[in-house]
């Protein structure tokens, strides 16, 4: 595959943020997180997370705003995963199309992507942009359409089974799983390959980003 496109998940792929999300949630909703482990929430949207831990619907709008605000305040470049900034800079240099897909609210996505200091507005499908998010294929189908990507020339980097299922159901043939500290419950059975570093992805062998 000489020509290719790249779609990145964000939380857990661009930023190693899953523990930060959980810490903020515990601080703001301590009554609902006493018996919850962060691994239980991997891949869920914020709305799904609040439903899962039992936050009443009438309280969710207020607590969502608080979570987003505190998360953004605590976010820093130290959360970027190894090599991701150099890889994306190389993709830009080689004019390789790429985009971002996430279940998170758009505001959170933009804060995370902002750490990359891109020279142009990112192609983004957030949890706010589709009626059905992962594990449904809708967000990946939306990105393929947004960027006019040939599905057969597209690869995805994900950290969750939900995301891998979504990408696979969208017909994307190359779906790489990139684990992190909170990925222990993920199976990655549908992944093309489990990688330990971005350099393990064969499509990246011809671009120098190390």
From TrEMBL:
This is Haloacid dehalogenase superfamily, subfamily IA, variant 3 with third motif having DD or ED. SUPFAM superfamilies: HAD-like (SSF56784). Keywords: Metal-binding. InterPro entries: HAD-like_sf, HAD-SF_hydro_IA, HAD_2, HAD_sf, PGP-like_dom2. It comes from Photorhabdus luminescens (Xenorhabdus luminescens). PANTHER family: 2-DEOXYGLUCOSE-6-PHOSPHATE PHOSPHATASE 2, PSEUDOURIDINE-5'-PHOSPHATASE. The keyword Coiled coil does not apply. One of its GO terms (molecular function) is metal ion binding.
